[in-house]
Design brief:
Strand content: under 5%
Distance between the termini: 63 Å
Number of strands: 0
Largest sheet: none
Structural class: mainly alpha
Low-confidence stretches: 1-11, 13-20
Order of helices and strands: HHHHHHHHHHHHHHHHHH
Number of helices: 18
Shape: globular
Length: 374
Amino acid sequence: MEEHTLSTRVWSEPAGRTTIENDPRKPAFARDRERIVQARAFRRLAGKTQVFTSRESDHFRSRLTHTIEVAQIAREVARALCLNEELVEALALVHDIGHPPFGHAGERALDKCLQAHGLRFDHNLHALRIVEHFEDWYAAHRGLNLTLGVREGIVKHSRDYSSSDHPLLAPYFLDQRPPLEAQLIDLADEIAYLTADLDDGVESGLLEIDHICANITIMGRAYEQVERDHPGVEPKFLFHEALQVMQTELTEDLITNTVRNVREHNLLSLAGVRACPHRVATFSPVYEAQRREEKAYLFRVLYTCDFLEAEHDKAENVVTTLFNHYMRSPEHLPAGYIEESATDGLPRVIADYIAGMTDNYILQQFWVASKLLR
């Protein structure tokens, strides 16, 4: 499947790159990976919620540690499929860079705030704004100057956009499927969080091992297998081993089924992948059903449990209060954002500012705003 590894120079090199930046000793996607890791927005992922905030325990996944786990899985899949591992790693490392504080609760709150002004918040599109606009540290250009291949993957790795709804995204081949390197990122993300959220859920005391195994087919089967192999071992160790078995099964199925799809549709080039009427990187029907079963369980039992719903309500209050505070008093924004508001409008730059905050920083700013509102 080597045909899928690279397309053209136009796709792998932005026009603005200098001779030094095109040094053949450092491939374009490797340079992209380095610039992503060095970005401030990437470092801030360490202080952003995955499911549980760091205030609860230092052992829970942050958005950064989750990202690292996604990169590990994605590279394993890419290696098995003979895809471009450097491109895949860059996409995995950047895929969550646009998330605001407080996880999906923070994103929902920010989106709701913007809807009142006829706008929306989408973490993928915000990630594109970050790498093209906000990471402004280089003498030769604004943004990270990432390759078109990585920027397309940021936009399209998890969903498709229409040119009618998003005309500014026209350069990203909206009428075509993304390359396999981008397609597999969303599923590597699924594998990572389906494993990690069960682990963190048990660590938190909100999930019980027996209940998980009784309600999630793939985990029940994996636990039984591990229990047979390691009789008499404490359940917490068996559970951890079973999580690894589940992750391996999902990863291997993704690899096997993607190869099956490539062969079934005779996809011999990147052009063939782009023209395919549906995504090529998928789980098999059996494992897709088990993935859906587990995801439904997590939503029903963990993500919407009373404890996390209370956390989500707090997050919405913090984000909404701070957004409205800046709308009323934009002079409290950093000077650079006030300047940007002349071009992008005040609601958008407030969302940009809030989205870049870590959990701790937004709580500090909320405390300051609350004092001013008294």
